[in-house]
Amino acid sequence: MRAEPAVLLLAGVVAAALALAGADPTGAADARARVDLWPGGLSASGPSAVELPVVRLSGRAVTVQAEAGPFRVVDTRGGAPGWSLVVQAARPVDALGRRMGASLVVQPGAGPPPDGVSLGGAAPVDTPVAVMHAPPGTGTGAFVVTPRLRLTVPADTPSARYVTTLVVTVS
Predict the structure, then answer these.
(1) Are 100 and 153 in contact (CB under 8 A)?
(2) How far apart are CA 141 and CA 63, in angstroms?
(3) Are 149 and 92 in contact (CB under 8 A)?
């Protein structure tokens, strides 16, 4: 069977037009996809409460500790400006308003710090203490740390329930 010359000529013209237009005559085509990523923000989250173990007073100082976390920092800002996760708490106070003669101490979490981030050392939280720090040029993404709180209860502390507020900020 012999094809008509007009049909062959038309097929050749279409294939040439597709080739000149950069299209694949088999039906495949390239497409560009675009996603715009807008800078987000800087946020921190953590537990709503930290409970230290019950202390049985015995006439000597007693040290107790508990995990205070996890704390999570998320930085989706552009330019990686860096940040610090800071904790602070007043000395614990009882229902009568008596302050305990000891400060809470924050200790860094176990294990190596996340890439580009440093963990703070053990320090009393009477003044602001950096628990985790990302210098400029680092710290974009999500980071988690689980520090511990330690309290050494003095031997002469009156028995009562003592509370304080742990203030956590990121900036």
Answers:
(1) yes
(2) 36
(3) no
Residue in 124, 47, 43, 125 with CA at minimum distance from that of residue 83? 43
How far is Cα of residue 44 from the mean position of the Cα atoms in its chain?
Answer: 6
Tell me the CB-side half-sphere exposure of residue 34, using CA atoms within 13 A.
2
pTM of the model: 0.75
Tokens representing 108 are 């860094």
Dump the DSSP string for the chain. Answer: ----HHHHHHHHHHHHHHHHTT--TTS--------------EEEE--S---PPP----SS-EEEEEE---EEEEE--TT---EEEEEE-PPPB-TT-PBPSS--EEEPPSSPPPTT-EE--SEESSS-EEEEEE-TT---EEEEE--EEEEEE-TTPPSS--B---EEEE-
pLDDT in tens, 96-152: 999 999 999 999 877 788 788 999 999 999 999 999 999 999 999 999 999 999 999
- 124 exposure class (CB count in 10 Å sphere: 0-12, 13-18, 19+): middle
Nearest alpha-carbon partner for 106 in 71, 151, 139, 138: 151
